[in-house]
C-alpha cells in the first residue's frame, strides 16, 4: 500500500473516509498525534483502544464536531478539512451518527425523535415521514413503541431508536460511538448483530469506536488499535487480532499496559497500513 | 526570580482569559442574533418559548405584582400621611412600579423561573450530547436552541412588565384606598396626570434590555455547561446569579441614562 500524501488532489474513492496526519491538541496535551487512517467503502472499520487514547476525539473529527490543528480529512475523495459551516452541512447529509448514550431528545417521543431530521431538514409530506419512520423502526425491531418517551424505554431500546434516527436520511456513512456502552452482554450482542445486518443490507461504510473487545471484532472488517493518540495497529480484523504486539495483547487481556520505554519502542510485527 | 515574575504571569494569564471569555460571550450573542434573522425561519420554536417564558410566568408575575403593589400602597400611604400628601399615593405607586420595580422584579422573577429552566435544559442537552446530535443532523444548534429563546424573551419581558405594572397599581389601590382610606378619586387621577409616556418608555426599555440579558446569559451558561456530573447544576447557578447581578447593575446604568 502506498502512503497517502496531502497534496494528492485526486484521492481514491475506494475509501469513504481518509484521514491524513491528523493532529489535535487541547492546550499542551496532544490527543491525536499525526493520525492516518483509511476506512474502505462498504466495510466496518473499528477503532479500539484504552480509555483516553483519543478514539472518540478522532470520531468527532470525522463528523466535524471538532476541527484539527493540522492534517486533512477526505470524505469520498473530497478534502473537507477547510470547508465552511454551510458547505459542511452538505457533507453531513452523508452521515448518520449513533452517540454513546443515544443523545435522544428527552422531550420528544420515539416517533418524533426518529422523524426529527426529516421534519427539520426536508419538506416531505407528513404521510411520507410517517411511512419512513415506521419502516426504520420496523428495521430495528421497535414497532409499537412510537408514542413512548426515551425515559420510558430500556437502554437497549434507546440505542435502537438512536440507530433508526441515524438511518432515517439514508446516509452512506455510519459513525458509531461505543454503541454497546451500558448494556449487558446479551443486549450488546444483539446491538452488534443489528449494526452488522443493517450495514450489510444497506451497503453502508461504518466507523465504529468501541472498547467492547473482543466481541466487537465479530462484526468488524478492519481494525485500528489506538494508543496514546496514535494508530499503533491497523489492518484486516484477522491480522490485527493475531498481531504480536505486547501493548495490544495487554489491552486485549484487560491487563495494565506496561508503560516502560522498551514496550513502547517495540515495533509491532504486523505491518501497519496507511502510515 | 520566579517568585517575582510568577504573580505577573498569573495576572496576565487571568486577564487574557477574562478578555477571551468576554469575546466568546459577545460572539455567542452575535451568532444568535444573526441566526434569528437568517433563514430557515422556525416561528413555532419562538412561539413555544414565548409560552414557556411568557404565558407560563403570568400567574407568578401577577402574584408578585399584587403583593408588591399592596406593600407599596401600605408603605406609601403611611409615609405620605406624615406630610399630608395621601392624594399623591397613586402617583407614587405608579411611578415606582413603572420606572423601577416593574421591570426589575419581573425580570428577577422570570430569571428564577424561566432563566434557570433555560440554562438547565440547554446544559442537560449539552451534557447528554443532544447539542452534538443537532450539529451532526446539519441543524445549527444556536439557530435551533438559542435564537428562539432570545426572540421570545424580547417579546415576553415587556409584556410581563406591563402586566406587573397594571396589577401592582391595582394592588396598591386595594390596600391604600380600600384598606387605609386614601382618597379614591385622586389615586387614578394622579396617575393619569403625572405618569408620562417617557416613564412608561423607560420601564419598557429596561425590560427589553433585561430580557436580552437573561436569555443571553442563561443560554450561554447552559450551552457551555461542563460535561460532568455537576455541569448542569453549576451552569444553572451561575446563570441565575449572573443574570440577577447584571439586571441590578443594568438597572442603575439605564436609570442614569434614561432619567
Q: What is the CA-based Rg of chain B, rounded?
A: 22 Å
Contiguous uncertain segments of 5+ residues of chain A: 1-10
Quote the beta fraction of chain B: under 5%
CATH superfamily of the largest domain in chain A, by name, is P-loop containing nucleotide triphosphate hydrolases
CATH class of the largest domain in chain A: Alpha Beta
Major protein interface: A-B, 23 and 14 residues
SSE order of chain A: EEEHEEHEHHHEHEEEHHH
Measured between the Cα atoms of the first and last residue of chain B, the distance is: 53 Å
How many discrete domains of chain B?
1
- Please summarize the sheet with the most strands of chain B: none
Shape of chain A: globular
Secondary-structure element series of chain B: HHHHHHHHH
* Average pLDDT over all residues of chain B: 94
The helix content of chain B is over 70%
Question: How much beta of chain A, percentage-wise?
Answer: 15-25%
Amino acid at each position: 500500500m502506498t502512503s497517502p500524501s496531502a497534496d494528492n488532489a485526486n484521492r481514491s474513492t475506494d475509501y469513504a473516509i481518509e484521514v491524513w496526519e491528523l493532529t489535535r491538541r487541547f492546550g499542551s496535551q496532544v490527543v491525536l498525534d499525526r493520525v492516518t487512517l483509511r476506512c474502505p467503502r462498504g466495510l466496518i472499520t473499528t477503532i479500539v483502544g484504552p480509555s483516553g487514547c483519543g478514539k472518540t476525539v478522532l470520531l468527532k473529527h470525522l463528523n466535524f464536531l471538532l476541527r484539527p490543528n493540522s492534517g486533512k480529512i477526505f470524505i469520498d475523495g473530497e478534502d473537507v478539512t477547510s470547508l465552511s459551516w454551510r458547505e459542511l452541512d452538505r457533507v453531513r447529509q452523508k452521515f448518520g451518527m449513533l452517540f454513546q448514550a443515544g443523545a435522544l431528545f428527552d422531550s420528544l417521543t420515539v416517533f418524533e425523535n426518529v422523524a426529527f431530521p426529516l421534519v427539520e431538514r426536508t419538506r416531505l409530506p407528513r404521510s411520507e415521514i410517517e411511512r419512513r419512520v415506521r419502516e426504520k423502526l420496523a428495521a430495528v425491531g421497535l414497532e409499537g413503541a412510537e408514542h413512548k418517551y426515551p425515559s420510558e424505554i430500556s437502554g437497549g431500546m434507546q440505542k435502537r431508536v438512536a440507530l433508526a434516527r441515524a438511518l432515517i436520511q439514508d446516509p452512506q456513512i455510519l459513525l458509531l460511538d461505543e454503541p454497546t456502552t451500558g448494556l449487558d452482554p446479551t443486549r450488546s450482542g444483539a446491538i452488534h448483530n443489528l449494526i452488522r445486518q443493517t450495514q450489510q443490507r444497506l451497503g453502508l461504510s461504518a466507523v465504529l469506536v468501541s472498547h467492547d473487545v473482543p466481541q466487537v471484532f465479530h462484526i468488524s472488517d478492519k481494525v485500528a488499535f489506538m494508543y496514546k493518540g496514535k494508530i499503533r495497529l491497523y489492518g484486516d480484523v484477522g491480522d490485527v487480532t493475531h498481531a504480536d504486539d505486547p501493548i495490544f495483547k495487554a489491552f486485549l487481556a484487560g491487563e495494565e499496559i506496561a508503560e516502560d520505554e522498551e514496550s513502547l519502542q517495540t515495533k509491532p510485527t504486523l505491518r501497519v497500513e496507511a502510515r | 526570580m520566579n517568585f517575582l515574575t510568577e504573580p505577573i504571569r498569573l495576572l496576565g494569564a487571568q486577564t487574557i482569559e477574562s478578555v477571551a471569555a468576554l469575546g466568546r460571550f459577545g460572539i455567542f450573542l452575535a451568532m444568535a442574533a444573526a441566526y434569528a434573522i437568517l433563514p430557515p425561519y422556525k416561528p413555532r420554536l419562538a412561539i413555544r418559548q414565548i409560552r414557556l417564558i411568557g404565558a407560563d410566568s403570568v400567574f407568578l408575575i401577577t402574584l408578585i405584582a399584587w403583593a408588591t403593589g399592596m406593600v407599596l400602597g401600605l408603605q406609601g400611604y403611611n409615609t405620605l400621611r406624615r406630610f399630608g400628601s395621601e392624594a399623591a399615593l397613586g402617583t407614587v405607586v405608579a411611578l415606582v412600579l413603572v420606572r423601577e420595580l416593574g421591570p426589575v422584579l419581573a425580570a428577577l422573577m422570570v430569571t428564577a423561573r424561566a432563566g434557570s429552566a433555560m440554562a438547565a435544559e440547554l446544559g442537560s442537552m449539552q451534557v447528554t450530547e443532544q447539542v452534538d446530535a443537532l450539529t451532526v443532523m446539519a441543524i445549527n444548534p444556536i439557530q435551533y436552541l438559542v435564537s428562539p429563546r432570545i426572540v421570545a424573551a424580547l417579546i415576553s419581558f415587556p409584556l410581563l412588565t406591563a402586566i406587573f405594572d397594571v396589577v401592582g397599581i391595582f394592588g396598591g389601590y386595594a390596600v391604600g384606598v380600600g384598606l387605609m382610606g386614601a382618597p379614591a378619586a385622586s389615586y387614578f387621577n394622579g396617575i393619569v396626570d403625572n405618569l408620562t409616556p417617557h416613564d412608561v418608555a423607560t420601564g419598557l426599555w429596561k425590560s427589553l434590555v433585561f430580557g436580552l440579558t437573561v436569555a443571553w446569559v442563561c443560554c450561554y451558561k447552559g450551552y457551555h455547561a461542563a460535561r460532568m456530573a455537576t455541569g448542569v447544576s453549576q451552569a444553572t447557578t451561575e446563570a441565575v446569579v449572573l443574570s440577577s447581578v447584571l439586571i441590578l447593575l443594568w438597572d442603575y446604568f439605564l436609570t442614569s441614562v434614561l432619567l
